């Protein structure tokens, strides 16, 4: 009898764990339902024509960025700006060749080689963008995945530098330039790229009891910390994107702009290719991967979304209002403010010209 009661108790605990604890753990660390939906989803670009508009794509040499650029070009975009640390002249020639073969008009294609490893590069991007008559769509796909810790010339771990700080600073410099063309009935859109990798990295993203939060995440070590660094840097960027959206929503210093994030899902690309040599990352990517073109289409839909997507995450076709659970807690709001304020201090110290943008956000 005692044995039967013991067995029953153990079974009840096991059922409770399977019913409640495991789903909660997965919700925090591994959004498998979302990944499975993305794996089987085949989004197409919903906007039929970008005639008369201007689009800018950072990370244009990447798997997602290059495909997004081609999507714009094939849909009558008037001006296409290709931005990357590498020369995109080859991509420009490829796009023009494909359009000629298809009998389609060629857009004006500008190639800007920008070093995102430095703040000077972000400033240069802003200066170049001021030459544009309009900027309807700014898609920030520039990113890096580093398996070994390295530091940028600015003194930051390179994932934190490129994925968070440089992308955030570049966005701030683009903000005053964003302006809809006459042919565009909607406000201009600035889109950051987010990732499911934020979820497993969240366990290592708590705010330290003392000292700078961003530096704490940047001063990491090789091994598991570096393995999560891509997700941590993207988590900081999502904090920044949400804070920036909240501030632009209430400012009178800037024209109306839609700021959102887009989740492309995952695919086997040059960025994720090294994961094939690591068991767990390979299994996760295999579980969720889809053709990179669908990921790019999802990003183009994100940067083409309407004002209802402001401050939210766009996934494939729809606007997703929820953020990772840890970001919604009070501790997440504290971390968001720390990330925003620490980035501001860093930017204003090293690139004083950005102060004018912050002043606009405070009007």
UniProtKB/TrEMBL annotation:
Keyword Lipid biosynthesis: no
UniProt KW keywords: Oxidoreductase
Protein name: NAD(P)-binding protein
Protein's UniProt keywords contain Membrane: no
Gene Ontology molecular function: any one: oxidoreductase activity
Family annotation (PANTHER family): PHOSPHATIDYLINOSITOL-GLYCAN BIOSYNTHESIS CLASS F PROTEIN, PHOSPHATIDYLINOSITOL-GLYCAN BIOSYNTHESIS CLASS F PROTEIN-RELATED
Highest taxon of source: Eukaryota
Gene3D superfamilies: NAD(P)-binding Rossmann-like Domain (3.40.50.720)
Organism (species): Saxophila tyrrhenica
InterPro entries listed in its UniProt record: NAD(P)-bd_dom_sf, SDR_fam
């Amino acid at each position: 009898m005692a044995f039967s009661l013991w067995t029953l108790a153990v079974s009840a605990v096991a059922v409770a764990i399977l019913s409640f604890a495991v789903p909660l753990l997965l919700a925090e660390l591994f959004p498998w339902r979302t990944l499975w939906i993305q794996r089987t989803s085949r989004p197409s670009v919903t906007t039929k024509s970008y005639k008369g508009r201007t689009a800018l794509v950072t990370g244009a040499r990447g798997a997602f960025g290059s495909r997004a650029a081609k999507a714009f070009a094939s849909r009558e975009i008037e001006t296409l700006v290709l931005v990357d640390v590498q020369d995109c002249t080859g991509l420009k020639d490829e796009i023009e060749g494909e359009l000629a073969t298809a009998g389609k008009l060629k857009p004006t294609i500008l190639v800007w080689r920008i070093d995102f490893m430095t703040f000077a590069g972000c400033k240069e991007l802003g200066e170049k963008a001021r030459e544009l008559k309009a900027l309807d769509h700014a898609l920030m796909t520039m990113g890096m995945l580093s398996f070994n810790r390295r530091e940028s010339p600015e003194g930051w771990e390179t994932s934190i530098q490129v994925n968070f700080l440089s992308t955030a600073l570049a966005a701030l410099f683009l903000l005053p330039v964003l302006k809809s063309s006459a042919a565009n009935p909607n406000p201009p859109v600035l889109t950051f790229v987010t990732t499911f990798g934020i979820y497993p990295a969240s366990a290592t993203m708590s705010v330290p009891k003392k000292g700078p939060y961003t530096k704490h995440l940047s001063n990491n070590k090789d091994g598991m910390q570096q393995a999560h660094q891509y997700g941590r840097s993207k988590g900081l960027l999502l904090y920044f994107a949400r804070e920036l959206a909240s501030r632009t929503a209430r400012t009178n210093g800037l024209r109306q702009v839609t700021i959102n994030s887009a989740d492309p899902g995952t695919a086997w690309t040059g960025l994720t290719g090294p994961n094939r040599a690591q068991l767990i990352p390979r299994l996760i990517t295999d579980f969720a991967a889809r053709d990179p073109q669908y990921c790019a289409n999802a990003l183009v839909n994100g940067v083409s979304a309407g004002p209802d997507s402001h401050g939210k995450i766009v996934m494939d076709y729809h606007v997703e209002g929820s953020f990772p659970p840890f970001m919604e807690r009070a501790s997440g709001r504290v971390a968001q403010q720390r990330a925003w304020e620490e980035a501001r201090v860093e930017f204003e110290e090293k690139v004083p010209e950005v102060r004018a943008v912050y002043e606009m956000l405070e009007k």
